[in-house]
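Thought: the user asked what DUF1795 domain-containing protein looks like in 3D. I have the sequence; next I should run the structure tool and report back without guessing.
Action: structure_tool
Action Input:
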Amino acid sequence: MTHSHAPARRHTHPQTHTVTIGVPRHWTTRSDPEHGLVLLARPPTRTGELGAAYGPELVVRTTPVDTDLATWRAEAVAALAAQLDAFEIEDDDRFELNGRAVVYHRLGYRARGVDVVAEQWAWLIDVPGAGGGIGVTLTGAVARSRYADYADLFEEVAATLDPGDAKESEDPGELSPAPAPGSAHPGEERW
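Observation:
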């Protein structure tokens, strides 16, 4: 499955930094920055569509992190294992993506009676002077029966994600806000 890349969209967590990502043109998006949801993107679905009971969806979240990348992800995956039915780690890796360290997991679990596959990439952004960082995760999830249809797309989207850099504001206790999140800006395109 090949997708043409279009200019990336910028999404912002108002108390942290800007995350830039390219998403498929026809997918709907929403965000809830106050709760760390930078982006939730889903394609339109038709009633009765195979796998429509779960996904596909792309989710970008941010969260404060006070440890290193490997420890944060190990703790997060352990928390998921405790929450999700039939949870298993199908793959895990650590590598650089676009010059940044990333932890990758492919996870299997059951949700709403459906076997699900989720691919998750995680970055840790250092926050100067704050004694911690900001964790950025991209999760692509879909019903296992549709995973082969979306695996390449999830990887292509991950390759477009720029987790940004946290910047200090003029007040050393605050992080500088960036533009508000939303759908594509006028004149910008999606895939």
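Thought: the tool returned a structure. Summarizing for the user.
Final Answer: Structure for DUF1795 domain-containing protein predicted. The beta strands are 9-12, 18-21, 28-32, 37-42, 57-65, 85-97, 100-111, 114-127, 132-143. The helical segments are 69-83, 147-160.
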